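Why this split exists: single-chain examples teach little about how molecules sit against one another. For that reason, every record in the complexes split bundles all components of an assembly together and asks for one structure covering all of them. Below is a record exactly as it appears in the raw files.
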Amino acid sequence: MSRFTGYFLMKEGDIPDYVRFEFPDYFDDGAKLSVREIGDGNLNYVFRVVDERSGKSIIVKQAGEQLRISAEMRISTDRNRIESEILLLQDKYAPGLVPRIFKYDTVMCACLMEDLSDHRLMRYALMEHKTFPRFADDITTYMVNTLLNTTDVVMEHKAKKELVKSFINPELCEITEDLIYTEPYNDAKGRNIVTPENLDFVKKELYGDRALHLEIAKLKFDFMNNAQALLHGDLHTGSIFVKEDSTKIFDPEFAFYGPMGYDIGNVIANLFFAWDNGDAAGNGVFCEWTLVTAVEVIDLFRKKFLAEYAKKVTDIMAKTEGFAEYYLGTIIADTAAGAGTELIRRTVGMAQVKDVTTIADRAKRARAERINILCAKDLIMNRAAFKTGDDFVAAFRGAVKAVDAL
Amino acid sequence: MSRFTGYFLMKEGDIPDYVRFEFPDYFDDGAKLSVREIGDGNLNYVFRVVDERSGKSIIVKQAGEQLRISAEMRISTDRNRIESEILLLQDKYAPGLVPRIFKYDTVMCACLMEDLSDHRLMRYALMEHKTFPRFADDITTYMVNTLLNTTDVVMEHKAKKELVKSFINPELCEITEDLIYTEPYNDAKGRNIVTPENLDFVKKELYGDRALHLEIAKLKFDFMNNAQALLHGDLHTGSIFVKEDSTKIFDPEFAFYGPMGYDIGNVIANLFFAWDNGDAAGNGVFCEWTLVTAVEVIDLFRKKFLAEYAKKVTDIMAKTEGFAEYYLGTIIADTAAGAGTELIRRTVGMAQVKDVTTIADRAKRARAERINILCAKDLIMNRAAFKTGDDFVAAFRGAVKAVDAL
């Protein structure tokens, strides 16, 4: 039973009463609750509720029916159900690496979840050139455990198909299909944002490269059709909370069944964006950390994947000699492609990253963007040749050299 | 509203009343209805209802909850909904090539459909070495229209995802996963049926070939994950009714979103089974027709596919130069694999085909089975090299030569 009988967008003032009704045991009777709306995303309202006496806190996250920046674009509130259900599932597979969900209310499309205010958004911490020694280990544990365990290599096949059905996510997938797999290559809707210094470069390298378009078309339909694993679907450093001794992956509202490499590639690309920012600031130590971490993400993923595969695989044909290595090979190729498409779409698409957009020096920013684009093209066009972490970083270093030689 | 308030398995005596209630306008008031249960499948009950005065008739098809041959295996009656919905959809895409559905009753899991008693089951007609000049043209129209039009290359992407969701078919897909992609290669459940003369041959060529197992594993997970098009899912010559001037494809209860080549390959393999039967009877003219028809099925599919693609494709990236040809190339490779896996599973698996099992001469039957297996392995192992109809028939003729040289 919900506190309310019909959906409406809650205001701060509605929240204390709502929390007490929905989760009566969480706060003491004498609690003095204060509420602040802290959402900075585009789709959701995030209320932080604190008991001023005990300091205890909780988050209420409610899905809106339209984009916060534009009432024109309406989006189904079902994404909040998807997010709550997937966080519950991921908490089972990767305990401690996702925020806890206490309750999901289908009437209000809202959930009560663990408050992670003692963590920081990873992107902002990286923009201060902070390093996180646990990150490669934590993110690869999270990815191997949530991705491999939701495939039909591991899961009972009928149960896996029910999960596929439950996480079909037409509206948010459409956003990805448009923003990642279409517009960066043709500016079809006139929504791209290209820095003036790179207009000709983008015209030639992205809009004018037909061989690239053909590979993107292949990747687009693989993304749309290959129901391999239950992805996070938006695994950039703005979807990760960090503190010294903790990593929490949140905001999986883009979750659906797709190719694993899409998630892993997103992580790699966002480490490269962090490099862009550190390099513009002349912080070589930080830059080195981002690349070493990219190497570790790939190589630890490989190692943990094969270990978990040997332990968990149930399907008899999946146990065929050589299949695990073949399967991992396709995942790493998809990872190269996923990193490439993320590098490109964040550089010329409508949703850019602050790591790059905050580089004040125009020439440095333009250089970073060219590096991202050339690295991306190598990753996409030669994706089948990528195997180890070193291969990925070699592509990035190669792009730096190529741009500096232009 | 249904005639009954709860599901039960109807008997012949229940049917006249049921039909008059469900479809009151179909028969005249004075009609004298006679009913006969004519189902010969394993899952469903098929009642033919005839007005003895006018000759007018209709079919009532009801889904049972267990296999007719074994009460142990229970199967969801939801497959009848899937079948009715897909026939309605296919009637839109390929009018005249599927039986008409008049009504579907969710309570009784039964549908009222067009009576095709003036048609014959194609498999039985082929076993009498009848030829069907319209077949290649009709079946390729059916396949291009029902397959290409249900992809996201053509469909609006969100609508396509809703179709994927609606046709997720865990139980019947599991049968395919076991019987086609697992058991023929290891007899995992002891259900295979191998003719005594071929025991050693099957042990060596199927159970002992690890390179083959690896390719089957790849195909199995592609079958399970690649939500490319809404397949028929069981497109053999026992799912096709024919008469001189008409082809009707029915029984799509295995329908789900999978790789198109699975359907097309099934058609090719079943033409080869017809060859086996004709060859054992020394009917060279019929054999030639089966192979010419296989060539036409591939080549007409290619031609109609590209024409329909040019007309219907909506996705901007799918219009990229070269993509249609790439996409068709993957479909034809999947077709080779689909033909190969069907040839093998019908030869050693638990569900065999009468074209081959009725060959009375033991040596001739064993030879046919070896041809099927060697042809299948060529199709599977070299699937990426298959392009035209001639390539498929060359593989079959090559297998005949190889077996005769053994």
